[in-house]
Each structure stands twice: as structure tokens, then as C-alpha cells.
Write a structure and sequence with these properties.
Helices cover about 65% and strands about 0% of the residues. It is mostly helical. The longest helix is centred in the middle third of the chain and has 26 residues. It is elongated and about 50 Å long.
Length: about 110
């Protein structure tokens, strides 16, 4: 992949995400709602990760990964952010923090239509 002046819209959207950090007031008793939000978030994250890897990283040279101006590097930065969100999604499920799961869902949903 060659250097690009502008990153694809999906990379810009991922880069702009502020990962919500939500303290757990009291654990939710609604396991169905929590599991549903967790699965929705996981599905978006898994699909975005697969799409990024498939669309941008199939024929990447090692040097491109470390070139901060390359699209491959930008993709790896986005994948790292998705991994951070994935960890928060798992943590919020473990803590039974439905508010945290909902906030993650709110920031992830716009990625579906990119």
C-alpha cells in the first residue's frame, strides 16, 4: 500500500472514538440486556477487525507497518484501538456494567454504516 494523504473514512472514524470509561454504580440484574449489548459490540468489533485486515493488510510489507505515514500503519493503530474497546467490552460484561456496555454500543454503532 502506498502512502496516502487521507486515510479511509473508517480509519478516521475509529481514530475519533473516545473510549467511554464508566464507573459501575450497581451491577445490572438484567442478564439478557447485558449479553445482548455485549454480543452486539463484539459483533461490530469482530466485523470491523476482519474487514480492516482483509481490505488493507493482505499484501503489506513489514516496512509499511512501521512507517507512520503509511496506510498500513494507520490500520494497525485502528486495530489497536478496536482491541482496547474489545477489552473494555469484556470488562463491562464481567462487572455487569450495563451502562458501560450501552456507551460502547453508542460509539460503535456508527461504524456499521462506514
Amino acid at each position: 500500500m502506498a502512502c496516502t494523504a487521507e486515510s479511509p473514512a473508517v480509519l478516521s472514524k475509529i481514530d475519533a472514538i473516545q473510549i467511554p470509561v464508566v464507573q459501575n454504580g450497581s451491577p445490572s440484574r438484567d442478564a439478557t440486556a447485558m449479553n445482548s449489548l455485549y454480543q452486539q459490540n463484539k459483533s461490530i468489533l469482530d466485523n470491523m477487525t476482519l474487514n480492516l485486515k482483509t481490505d488493507y493488510l493482505l499484501n503489506v510489507k513489514t516496512a509499511e507497518i512501521f512507517d507512520e505515514h503509511s496506510q498500513a500503519h494507520q490500520v494497525y493503530v485502528s486495530l489497536s484501538k478496536l482491541d482496547q474497546i474489545r477489552l473494555m467490552n469484556h470488562l463491562y460484561l464481567k462487572e455487569q456494567n450495563v451502562t458501560g456496555l450501552q456507551k460502547l454500543n453508542d460509539v460503535l454503532r456508527p461504524l456499521i454504516n462506514v
